[in-house]
Amino acid sequence: MAKSQIASARYSSAGDRLFDIANYTFMVVLMIVTIYPFINMLAVSLNDAGDSIKGGVYLWPRVWTWENYDYVFKQATILHSTWISASRTILGTLVSTFCSAMVAYTISRPEFVLRKFVTIAFVLTMYFNGGLIPNFLLMRELHLMGTYWVYIIPGILGVFNVIVIRSFIEQLPEGILESARMDGAGEFTTFLRIVLPLSMPVLATTSLFTAVYHWNSWFDVFLYNSSKVELSTLQYELMKMLQNSNASISSSGGNMDGSGGTAANFVTPTSIRATMTIVASLPIVMVYPFLQKYFVKGMTLGGVKG
């Protein structure tokens, strides 16, 4: 029996090793497939635009240059639109996360008699909405068109975030909330001093979702503020820049000389697209590592209950 157990353990450990090898191989391949497009875009953005036309730029720039970034950041509206995007992302994320957490705490309380009705009403909005034209008319009637607040107020409550935060709050020990009430704390004090600090993992998760939405959003700018240059966002300006780019855009007004050299450096739609991708995604990529541990924990704990 001892020999058979040893043999079984040997085969079992060999199977475990084979599984580990296959698992690690799959994860490495998945990582390469996920990261390669970003690295390729970075290489193209740092490569000379004329040289990139030839192709063959994969992981490393063949002819280094900062001309693509110089062209993008020399646009008159880029810096101001970056500020609008950053302020919108910060303010919109803070307001939306706080309001969503308050609503989530309300519908998580068993003593709230309308909690089931309100939850169903919220969930229905995830499947049905008024449509583009009614939303446009609503923004006009609320006098939000042509204002900065059209970026903040419509997204002040995220239904998906409310559901996730509610599921997380329902898992908090009820004894902690009861002890706070016994000490004289009201509902808002309990929410502010007890629930919010304990809900940091899920709040970080939903904040990341909301921040990515605000940072990447450009369609609402097109709908409501396209005529307001001072309210334009980075994504909208980059989209316009890409649409207006031709096969070859001179960054200094020069042309190709007769010998095949360049009298002035130039950029192409491909180089602009790669540069804009890096510029637009880099802030979120830099923020994510600081929220990763909260993101994973929040999604795991917040997704246990429906």
UniProtKB/TrEMBL annotation:
Task: List where the protein spans the membrane.
Answer: 21-39, 83-105, 117-136, 148-169, 190-215, 272-291
Any one GO CC term of the record:
plasma membrane
The protein's topology relative to the membrane is: Multi-pass membrane protein
**Stored CDD domains:** TM_PBP2
Domain of life (superkingdom): Bacteria
As for subcellular location, the record says: Cell membrane
Pinpoint the ABC transmembrane type-1 domain residues: 82-288
Query: One GO biological process from the UniProt record?
Result: transmembrane transport
Which key words tag this protein in UniProt?
Answer: Cell membrane, Membrane, Transmembrane, Transmembrane helix, Transport
InterPro entries attached to this UniProt entry:
MetI-like, MetI-like_sf
Record family assignment: Belongs to the binding-protein-dependent transport system permease family.
Q: Please give the name of this protein.
A: Carbohydrate ABC transporter permease
The organism named in the record is Paenibacillus montanisoli
